[in-house]
């Protein structure tokens, strides 16, 4: 199994660890400390050795920050983790705070007046440091960069970092040679008026050099830094233990290889007297300080790899389509199996296990083995479905009961693509309220699927299409409608998003999720998610402006039992019936007789 279900969260030690941390802070001559869930690369998934927030607070969500002050402590996280945060932390030690309602800067402005607060500059971005500094100084406080992390000094059984082998991403899936990509980035560096840039995001480094790894859970990243100069010289800082002879030879053909532990020294030499481009939202503050100490000039520069990485080339698009086809077959096989189980006879964990085995089966049958799941499967029955990023464990494991909804959000990592899909399933007979809310969510998902939009359109411009049916009913959801997705890379990839914060214009080749939802705390959750590909501009008959649109990549039926046709328009019903026909035609040849029969029933036209 790529996922284990052990309950790793234990808040019983939080009180003693916070008390010990407060004593240690005195030796640093500071009043408090900010502890983000972060590593030096700002990864979504971090190595166990970097899980400082979890060690201190027991909170395991993928986004969060702790603040420890002399007489107060808090953990801040966003709307995805509102319920999980309260359940995991010791509220006698930490206040749970919504980062949507109260930013970290706002919290420090309110509670950090006149205090000296420390941070580890390897864990906070350049822009993040500025926000914290401004918030504290406005209230007479002070921000201090710590040479040592007090958490690391107290964490005596901290895991050691592993060194899994680096693999080459075949050109049939990568679509472009690493040398061509490096040359493109070199041109971008020169165009930005810089001498070199530092790539701190391992997804950018892995894409640029056509390499993949196993350094963090569920995302095939190689933890590494890289620099690219305006003249095309590239340096890759990576643990040499990870490089076999073939991989090393391929990398040495396009770059100089240096040990990961030599990054500080190597960057200091490269940045001396040079204009160095840093993405201030991605690069940590320690890197800025290295450049300045070397006599270099820090230039604000967006990571030049992010947009080329987001614009999938033809090979990456073809790979994604193939990955979604086999992944859809795996989903159908699992859902057909689940439909045969009597309510009350199967648990959340059993479904997650069955789905992973189904992905393994179809990966082997298609000749592209499942490499990993793309994130811990969200398998939420009944009230657990209302926890947006619920992670089932053996303690929380719940049976799927009659009359409930079951939310299943999962994905696979294949060499040719990354998938992410959510389906909400009726267990037994759904009540009218469930069907009404499900249909409103479906209307939002179809609204995005049908959208046509001109060049320059951003996620913030389209997000309302997914919410309007819910808003008309007086409800909403506290997460973005969609995130970018990589090509056998991160399942959450920027810069494109479909959300109120989505300020990057969509471009052909970008892949984004389409996942509106509704969550009734204590009762049920609903989310329907497909991945969609931004298409090239084309003319509309009778129109005057060429428009882009979305091609749906995900292939899996949507539960007809939860749809109220009376709430849908004719256009929405036409879209759904056409989508189901496409799913049926694509997947039936891959299924056994019983699975194909289930799919035929699940994809019947809505009116039949």
From TrEMBL:
Record keywords, A-Z? Aminopeptidase, Hydrolase, Metal-binding, Protease
InterPro entries in the cross-refs: Creatin/AminoP/Spt16_N, Creatinase/aminopeptidase-like, Creatinase_N, Pept_M24, Pept_M24B, Peptidase_M24_C, X-Pro_aminopeptidase_P
**Entry's transmembrane regions:** none
Q: Where is the Peptidase M24 C-terminal domain?
A: 547-606
Q: Report if keyword Hydrolase is assigned.
A: yes
Q: Mind telling me which Pfam families this protein's record contains?
A: Creatinase_N, Creatinase_N_2, Peptidase_M24, Peptidase_M24_C
* GO-annotated molecular function: aminopeptidase activity
Q: Where is the Peptidase M24 domain?
A: 321-535
Can you give the residue ranges of the Creatinase N-terminal domain? 17-138
Q: What EC numbers are recorded for this enzyme?
A: 3.4.11.-
Protein family membership: Belongs to the peptidase M24B family.
Protein name per its UniProtKB record: Aminopeptidase P family protein
């Amino acid at each position: 199994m790529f996922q284990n279900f052990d309950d790793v969260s234990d808040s019983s030690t939080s009180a003693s660890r916070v008390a010990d941390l407060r004593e240690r802070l005195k030796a640093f001559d500071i009043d408090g400390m900010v502890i983000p869930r972060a590593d030096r690369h700002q990864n979504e998934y971090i190595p166990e050795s970097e899980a400082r927030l979890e060690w201190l607070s027991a909170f395991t969500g993928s986004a969060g920050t702790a603040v420890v002050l002399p007489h107060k402590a808090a953990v801040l996280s966003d709307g995805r983790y509102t319920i999980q945060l309260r359940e995991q932390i010791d509220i006698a030690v930490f206040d749970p705070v919504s980062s949507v309602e109260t930013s970290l800067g706002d919290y420090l402005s309110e509670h950090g007046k006149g205090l000296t607060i420390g941070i580890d500059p390897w864990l906070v971005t350049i822009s993040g440091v500025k926000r914290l500094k401004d918030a504290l100084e406005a209230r007479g406080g002070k921000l201090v960069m710590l040479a040592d992390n007090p958490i690391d000094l107290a964490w005596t059984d901290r895991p050691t970092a592993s060194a899994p082998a680096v693999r080459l991403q075949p050109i049939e899936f990568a679509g472009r040679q690493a040398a061509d990509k490096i040359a493109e980035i070199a041109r971008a560096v020169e165009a930005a008026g810089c001498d070199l840039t530092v790539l701190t995001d391992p997804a950018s480094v892995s894409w640029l050099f056509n390499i993949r790894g196993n350094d963090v859970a569920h995302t095939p990243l190689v933890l590494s830094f890289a620099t690219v100069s305006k003249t095309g010289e590239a340096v890759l800082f990576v643990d040499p233990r990870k490089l076999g002879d073939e991989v090393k030879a391929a990398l040495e053909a396009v770059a100089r290889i240096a040990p990961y532990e030599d990054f500080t020294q190597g960057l200091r030499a490269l940045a001396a007297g040079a204009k160095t481009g840093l993405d201030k939202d991605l690069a940590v503050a320690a890197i800025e300080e290295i450049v300045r100490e070397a006599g270099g000039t820090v230039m604000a520069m967006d990571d030049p790899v992010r947009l080329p990485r987001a614009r999938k080339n033809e090979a990456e698009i073809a790979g994604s389509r193939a990955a979604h086809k086999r992944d859809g077959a795996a989903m159908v096989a699992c859902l057909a199996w689940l439909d045969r189980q009597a309510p009350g006879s199967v648990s959340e964990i059993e479904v997650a296990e069955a789905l992973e085995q189904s992905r393994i089966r179809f990966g082997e049958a298609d000749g592209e083995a499942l490499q990993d799941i793309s994130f811990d499967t969200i398998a939420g029955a009944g009230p657990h479905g209302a926890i947006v990023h619920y992670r089932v464990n053996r303690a929380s494991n719940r049976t799927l009961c009659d009359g409930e909804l079951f939310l299943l959000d999962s994905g696979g990592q294949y060499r040719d693509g990354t998938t992410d899909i959510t389906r909400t399933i009726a267990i037994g007979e759904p009540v009218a309220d469930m069907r009404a809310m499900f249909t409103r969510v479906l209307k939002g998902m179809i609204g995005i699927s049908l959208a046509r939009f001109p060049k320059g359109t951003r996620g913030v411009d389209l997000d309302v299409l997914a919410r309007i049916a819910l808003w008309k009913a007086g409800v909403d959801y506290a997460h973005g409608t969609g995130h970018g997705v990589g090509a056998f890379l991160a399942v959450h990839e920027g810069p494109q998003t479909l959300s109120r914060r989505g300020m990057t214009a969509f471009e052909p080749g970008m892949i984004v999720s389409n996942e509106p939802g509704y969550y009734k705390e204590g009762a049920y959750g609903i989310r329907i998610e497909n991945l969609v590909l931004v298409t090239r501009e084309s003319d509309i008959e009778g129109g005057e402006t060429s428009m882009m649109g979305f091609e749906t990549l995900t292939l899996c039926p949507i539960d007809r039992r939860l749809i109220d046709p009376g709430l849908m328009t004719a256009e929405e019903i036409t879209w759904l019936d056409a989508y189901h026909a496409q799913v049926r035609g694509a997947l039936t040849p891959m299924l056994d007789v019983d699975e194909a029969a289930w799919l035929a029933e699940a994809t019947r036209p809505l009116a039949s």
